[in-house]
Every structure is written in C-alpha cells, then in structure tokens.
Amino acid sequence: MFMRFDRHELAGSFGDIGTDLPLLIGMIAAGGLDAGHVFLVFGSLQILSGIYYRLPMPMQPLKAMAVIVIAGKLSPGIIYGGGVAIGVTMLALTATGLLARVAALFPLAVVRGIQFGLGLSLALLAVRSYIWPSGVMGWYAAAGGFFIMLILWQNRRLPAGLVLVAAAVLYGALTQNTPTALATSWRADWLTFQLPSATDIATGFLLLALPQLPLSLANSVVATRQTCADLFPDRDVSIRKIGVTYGVANLVSASFGGVPVCHGSGGLVGHHNFGARTGASVVIYGAIFVTAALLFGHRAKDVLALFPLSVLGVILTFEAFGLMRLARLTEPAKWAQFVTLATGLVCAMAPHGFLVGSVTGITLYHAPNLWRKVRP
Fold first, then answer.
1. Which parts of the chain span the membrane according to its record (predicted)?
2. What residues contact 163, with CB distance under 8 A and at least 6 apart?
C-alpha cells in the first residue's frame, strides 16, 4: 500500500495528540526525564511504525505505566527498566506462540466491549481532566472546537482536524508566552545509548510491566488487531506482527531515553477519524516531535504545550466516539450484545478495569454454554 502526503494525512496526523501529549509531559515532569530525548525517540518510533505498516498505526505511551510513573514520581532508571521488561515479555509471548493463544480467548463480543470501554474511559477523561478544569475560556475554546469538527466533519476539501489544529495553535500562541521563550532556547539534542541496570529492569517489571500487561493484551494487541480489520479490511495485520513491533519498540525506547510505548486501537481510530488512510499521517506526526526535539532540546515539550488543554479534550472526545461506534459491529445475538455492553462498562468503571472487564466478558460469553452443560 502506497503512502500519500496530502492535507488529509496532515489533518489525520493530529488525531492522537489528545492522548499522547498530556501523558508524555506528565511522565517527563514526574520522572525528571529529558524532554528532548523523549520526544526524539517517540517521534522516530512513529515514523518507523508508519513506514513499516503503511497504515496510520501510531505508537502511544503505555497508559497504565504512565499513570503509575506520574503518581509515584519514579526514577528514570525504573522507567527505562520497565520498558525493557515489557518489551522482553511481549517478545517472549510472541516467540512462544502464547500471545496468539491468549488473543484467541477473546470472542468478538468481548473485543467490541474492550473497544467500547476504552472509548468511554477516554471520553470521561476528556471531560473530567481536560475540558472541565480549563475554566470559562477553555469551555469556549472547547465549544468552538466541537463546532468546527461538526460543521466540517468529513469535508474533503477542508479537513476538520486541520482547521481545529490550526485554530488551536493560533489560540495558544496568542494567549501564552511560549513562542517568546522558545525563541531564545534553540539547542540541538542527540541520543546516547544506555541500557538500564538489572536491578532497574527487575523493579520496572514488578512496578510497571505487570500492571500494564493486562491492558496491553486487551487493547494494544487484541483490540488493535480487530480495529485494523475494521478500518482496513484489505490489510492483514497479524497478532504476531503487532507483538514483535511492540516488543522491539520498547527495547529501543528504553535504550535511548524514551518512555515505554505501545500500539493502540484508540490511536488508530483517532488518526482515521481525522482523515488519515495511510502511514503518512504517522510519519508526519513523528516528524513534528523529532523537529521539536532537535530544535529545542529539553524545551521541546513547550512547543506542543501551545495546544490548549480543552482542545486536546475535543480531539480525545472524537477519538473516543470513534471507538465506541465500533461496538455496533458486535455479534448479532442479544446475549453477545449484552456481553459487549457489560464488558465495556466494567473496563471503563472498575479498578484494573481492562483485566477485570476481559475476565468478566469472557466468563459471561461462555456462561450459557456452561449452564447447559451443568444443568440437570
């Protein structure tokens, strides 16, 4: 499949920034990471993913790990150790065939529930953490963003996402002093190779990789595979392929000062919703991070901080709605539809939601057959 670089791919390149940017900045601040290194590695992995898959298949910060890092203010060594640990674990599961066997345990109704639950949790996050705390001016900005998206939705000549991003950057430039501060901070930043210690890898496995693994299996692997089939039915993206790129990306990221990353169904839907149809959108998205890192070094995060938080919330909301819409493609049986809804609600609402939701959904899905077997 060819890659096309046009205004639609440019608009689509911003479809996942609402998820990525707050998590990246939060991890940089909490862990004392070098923003230049984080952005350079993150952007480079985006570019490689776009070229390899030739689909809008982005890399995302690992969400469960990000939350733990931000809450616990973990050291850089443990963050890098967690990246190596999750990368090795995923490669081991892929090489032994266990990843494909685990993926086969998820019926379509449960996968749709995971997609629905992720969409619902992202929508709640957008409102509670991005839009509502931004105050009156932020609410006006969010309302304007929703208006732009609704008026220009699926407009082929003037992509809604591109107009929204341009308006957001202009608003941020006019209301913040970031451009002035950045004008005096031009500094190229380069990567250095350094593996984390065995102690950091062991600690990272216990503190970060284990809590992340259920979410990765459910969303990063199973739901992402299904979303690829939904949006690009002519492309065969296997569980094994996703597992390999997931594992390799984390080993590379941890070795060069980046944060742990994954693929994700939400990011794929976000890019697609904003107009992306090829890997060019992810290449463009990655190039933005790489450029910011090379030009501004440790101040790179301030470049993308031009985006108002409320507008990131708008982008995240449309990503969420795109995921939730996929739930309608679940199995036609009434019980399967109930399983999809129940799985999604548990994933979004319960502690350790994606682990509990997956187990709940699989159990409910097979409950009628089990009942018929044990009934006298």
1. 21-45, 65-93, 105-131, 137-153, 158-174, 274-296, 303-323, 335-365
2. 148, 152
In contact, 193 and 255? CB cutoff 8 Å: yes
Give the Cα separation of 232 and 225 in Å (integer): 10
Residues 287/288/294/299 CA torsion (nearest 10 deg): -160
Per the prediction, the chain carries an average pLDDT of: 89
Torsion angle, alpha carbons of 80, 86, 91, 97, to 10: 180
Residues 58 and 242: beta-carbon distance below 8 Å: no
Kindly report, residue by residue over 245-281, the tens digit of the pLDDT: 999 999 999 999 999 999 989 899 999 999 999 999 9
Tokens of 137: 């001016």
**pLDDT higher than threshold 80 for residue 222:** yes
pLDDT for 186 equals: 52
Spans of all domains in the chain:
7-329
Contact 11, 165 (CB under 8 A): yes
The span from the CA of 133 to the CA of 209, in Å, is: 31
**Residue 135 Cα distances to 55, 126, 275, angstroms:** 37, 14, 30
Contacts of 251 (CB under 8 A, 6+ apart): 83, 84, 87, 88, 91
Tokens of 334: 């009434």
Distance CA 301, CA 307 (A): 11
In degrees and rounded to multiples of 5, residue 332 shows phi and psi of -70, -20
**What backbone torsions phi and psi does residue 350 show, to the nearest 5 degrees?**
-85, 150
Which of 325, 311, 308 has the alpha carbon at shortest distance from 273? 325
Q: Please answer whether residues 31 and 76 qualify as being in contact, where contact means their C-beta atoms are separated by less than 8 angstroms.
A: yes
Burial of residue 296 (CB within 10 Å: 0-12, 13-18, 19+) is buried
Model pTM?
0.87
185 pLDDT higher than 60: no
Q: How many CB atoms lie within 10 A of CB 43?
A: 24
